[in-house]
Amino acid sequence: MFSNGIHISTSTYEVGAGFDLVIDDSNPDDLEFTLLQSNREVKKEVSNNLDLTYRVQTEDLHANFSVFYNQIDNYLFQQNTGLEFHDHEEALAGEELPVDMHEEEGLPIYVFSQQDAELYGFEADVDWHLNDNLRISAFTDFTRAKLTHSTDENTDLPRIPSMRFGTELHWEQGNWHAELGAIHYSKQDKIADFETQTDGYTLVSAAFNYYISLDDTDLTFYVKANNLTNELAKVHSSFLKDVAPLPARSFVLGAKVNF
């Protein structure tokens, strides 16, 4: 409700739902906005949720399959205005501040908005023990989110993760454990206004562990390899996806003690 200023960790300028952002466009080359206390009531979110889950459990197989539907009244979310804030000083209510819709530098201005929304999708995971040494697991999830009763042509909600699916192969023998896995993130093109698409990518990882038990102490030596194919991976739900993607290829050697 009361956000009014720079949010350093997301590199955005946030305007709370308790304010109205009024644009002065009398000079297109030097736009200014004013924050005024809003007369609108910030309402509580009210949701009706339906979840259906089917589970399979046998000696060698564990699986879960779920679908969900959430209908939310007064859904509160951050909306990009397409404007940018250039004077890096916090604003006072009623004070005019410079904005610009064309220059590349500056912080994007986000306002907290409320509209009715619906979210639906599915989740699934499977864990299958092939034998005493080999185990394979897999999962997938998907969420579709959009505004309802909106007069806007585009009803997609911002920063919604794309569909993903992944699998891991585990090998265990005595104190040794190894795993090889991959997760694919689909392209996200169901985007809100002033949002950009995020390309799909696949992350491949591997790990090798050795476990030792000493009285009440558990010692683990491990080596891990992340993003083996050195993919450029951006998290669509992140405000900083274009400037702070996921780490490139990396290797980790270490030890862990539990006591």
UniProtKB/TrEMBL annotation:
Domain TonB-dependent receptor-like beta-barrel span(s) in chain numbering: 33-228
GO molecular function: siderophore uptake transmembrane transporter activity
Source organism superkingdom: Bacteria
Keywords in alphabetical order: Cell outer membrane, Membrane, Receptor, TonB box, Transmembrane, Transmembrane beta strand, Transport
Membrane topology of this protein: Multi-pass membrane protein
Subcellular location: Cell outer membrane
Gene3D superfamilies per the UniProt record, alphabetical: TonB-dependent receptor, beta-barrel domain (2.40.170.20)
Pfam families: TonB_dep_Rec_b-barrel (PF00593)
GO cellular component, one term: cell outer membrane
GO biological process, one term: siderophore transmembrane transport
Protein name per the record: TonB-dependent receptor
Species for this entry: Paraglaciecola psychrophila 170
